[in-house]
């Protein structure tokens, strides 16, 4: 899954990328202590659940902003139609979940109205020298780590630089 700076998901792949393609936590800018902080919170939640004490985070999502040292909480509602945890559960084992996920893939996945292709499909198009346009919305330092030769406009700059894109070249 890829995410913008503000944490919004922008794409999901059906398979994880190969080792070495994604930067490490140190390269990507994850604070080294952050996994420890989140781990302590998870351990505390586990102990509370085992002891039956306190208020657990069940049904809530805790958002951690380590740079601002702020915590936000979102309350989550259970989806009654969920095949895993809903009122009429149809998936009760991990193997069944894997099977459902494997067979539920769309032929042409779409995210926010934009078609999504797999890494393999992109490689085939690049190898075939297909007429495709790649807009890379990462930061310049991320682009330097690994790039596909796409046109670089960082996501934060996109609204003021959208005029650089040739709309007549897109179908």
Write the layout of secondary structure elements.
Elements: E1 2-3, E2 9-11, H1 25-28, H2 34-51, E3 60-65, E4 70-75, H3 94-103, E5 110-111, E6 114-115, H4 119-127, E7 135-136, H5 140-145, E8 151-152, H6 158-161
Parallel strand pairs: 7-8
Antiparallel strand pairs: 1-2, 3-4, 5-6
Attribute tags:
two-stranded antiparallel ribbon, 6 helices, 15% strand, alpha+beta, disordered N terminus, single chain, 171 residues, two-stranded antiparallel sheet, 30% helix
Looking at the structure, what is the overall shape?
extended
SSE ordering: EEHHEEHEEHEHEH
Fraction in beta strands:
5-15%
Query: What is the gyration radius calculated from CA atoms?
Result: 21 Å
Low-confidence runs: 1-14
Could you give the count of β-strands?
Answer: 8
DSSP summary: helix tally: 6
Mean pLDDT: 75
Class by alpha and beta content: alpha+beta
Q: Give a quick account of the main beta sheet: strands, pairing sense, barrel closure.
A: 2 strands, antiparallel
Task: Name the helicity range.
Answer: 25-40%
Biggest sheet: strands side by side, in what order? Answer: 1-2
Distance between the termini: 26 Å
């Amino acid at each position: 899954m890829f995410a913008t700076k503000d944490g919004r998901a922008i794409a999901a792949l059906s398979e994880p990328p190969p080792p070495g393609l994604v930067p490490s936590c140190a390269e990507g800018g994850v604070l080294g202590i952050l996994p420890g902080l989140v781990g302590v919170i998870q351990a505390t939640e586990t102990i509370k659940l085992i002891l039956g004490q306190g208020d657990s985070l069940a049904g809530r999502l805790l958002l951690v902003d380590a740079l601002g040292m702020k915590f936000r909480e979102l309350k989550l509602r259970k989806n009654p139609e969920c095949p895993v945890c809903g009122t009429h559960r149809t998936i009760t084992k991990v193997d069944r979940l894997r099977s459902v996920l494997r067979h539920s893939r769309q032929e042409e996945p779409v995210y926010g109205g934009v078609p999504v292709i797999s890494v393999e499909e992109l490689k085939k198009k690049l190898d075939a020298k297909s007429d495709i346009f790649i807009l890379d919305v990462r930061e310049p330092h991320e682009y330097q780590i690994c790039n596909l030769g796409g046109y670089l406009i960082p996501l934060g700059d996109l609204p003021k630089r959208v005029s650089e894109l040739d709309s007549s070249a897109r179908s």
